[in-house]
């Protein structure tokens, strides 16, 4: 299952209980995301310092 797959009726398919890792660089930092997520328990330098959204996502 790929993250943006669609079924034969053009609906998005969903994957539950999955792990999605973002590999970033120090030049491009991540600030927020869409969907529910939990942190990996570490805060590398590619994670932004600004908290955004209702969930205070870093």
From TrEMBL:
Protein name: Uncharacterized protein
Organism from which the protein derives: Pisolithus microcarpus 441
InterPro entries per UniProt: vWFA_dom_sf
Top-rank lineage group of the source organism: Eukaryota
